[in-house]
Structure formats: C-alpha cells, structure tokens
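Weekly modeling sync, notes
Attendees: S.R. (lead), two postdocs, one rotation student

Agenda item 3: backlog of single-chain predictions. S.R. asked that every request posted to the team notebook include the full sequence so nobody has to chase files. The rotation student volunteered to paste the first one in as an example of the format we agreed on. Action items at the bottom.

Example entry:
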Amino acid sequence: MRRATTRSGRPADCREALELVTGYLDGVLPAGRRRRLEEHLAGCAECPVQLEQIRVTVEILRCFGAGDIPQDTLAKLWAAFARP
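Predicted structure, as returned to the notebook:
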C-alpha cells in the first residue's frame, strides 16, 4: 500500500511531521503527538534532516530580536522548509 502524498510529492505523514516540528523543538507538543513524531523521525530518512535544519535556523533567529527580521523574509524561510 502506497502512502498518501501531498501536492508537493512529500508523503502525508512527513508533511504532518513538519507541521509539528516547532512545537517539538519548543517542548510544548503533547506527549502522544511527540511520541508519534519521534516514531516517524526514527523511520524516515528526510525528516530528521529537516528537523535539524529548522532547529539550527530557529537558534540563529533567536539571536535576533523578533522585530529585526522582516515578516516577508520569515515567510519565505518557512516556505522553503515546506518544499520537497
């Protein structure tokens, strides 16, 4: 059975995982969702790479004040993470 894919061609469960990453990194993801995400990360080749890229990016962005980065720049950055 094939996994469902999104329009971008990314498996649906990878897309869902990507949507949970910021909550995971912030430590606010409920235990059940965190566990499902960690199970997905353990079996996926691509998502752990995406997680690390986002983690590093968030760490860099925290060095700047919230108002120092234009909103359109932030939007482009997050859109880039959503691409396959």
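Discussion: group reviewed the output briefly. Residues 12-82 form a domain with the Arc Repressor Mutant, subunit A fold (CATH 1.10.10).
Action items: rotation student to repeat for the remaining queue; S.R. to check formatting next week.
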